[in-house]
Amino acid sequence: KDGKNFRGTYKIRASYSYNGNSYAVTKIANNAFSGGNYGSSNPNLTGLDLTYATNLEEIGKGAFYYCTGLSGTLDFSNCTRLVTIGESAFRECNGITGLTFGERSKLKTIGDTAFRACTGLGGKRVILPNSLRNVGNEVFFLWSGPLLGRLEHKTVIEMNGTLPNLDRQPP
């Protein structure tokens, strides 16, 4: 389904039915809701409900890139199979004000620039899940405004680039 023209809060479900068959939702496609090319945005998507996205394993590259209407906290707590957030997945989604991953997270990789220029995260505390192993280049780079208030992790193994105010917590 083309998300570029969707208006409002989109609910990602565990599965969808089509012609009497049920299909698990395991990936949000590359550029699925993206505003597209530089200079064009998607202000129509205002929220993302991941409450029932229990089969989701991957959020594709640029899936929500430049969705300027997307706002609030992205709560990945019920996405217990999610292992990858792709490159530029939420880049320039300025209205995102928080990220929640939850204790049962299996997230292993956050791709380059995944949350770059999400200025709504400025001054906020982000706790990365214990399962996280790879953080790409400039994942939380902010163009202007306050840096992240605090970024915490326990087990990041590989990190490209630098992250602001990275605190290591003992295991």
CA radius of gyration is: 15 Å
**Residue share in β-strands:** 25-35%
Main sheet, how many strands, which sense, barrel? 6 strands, parallel
The rough form would be described as: globular
Query: Structural class from helices and strands?
Result: mainly beta
Uncertain stretches of 5 or more adjacent residues = 164-171
Percentage of helical residues? under 10%
- Major β-sheet strand ordering: 4-6-8-10-12-14
Instruction: Sketch the topology as an H/E string, one letter per element.
Output: EEEEEEEEEEEEEEE
Tell me the span between the first and last alpha carbons. 42 Å
Mean pLDDT: 86
**Annotation field: number of helices:** 0
Q: Care to count the β-strands? A: 15
Provide a brief overview of the structure.
By secondary structure, this protein is mainly β. Helix content is 0%, strand content 29%. The protein has strands at 8-11, 15-18, 21-24, 27-28, 45-49, 58-59, 71-75, 84-85, 95-100, 109-110, 125-127, 134-135, 150-153, 158-159, 166-168.
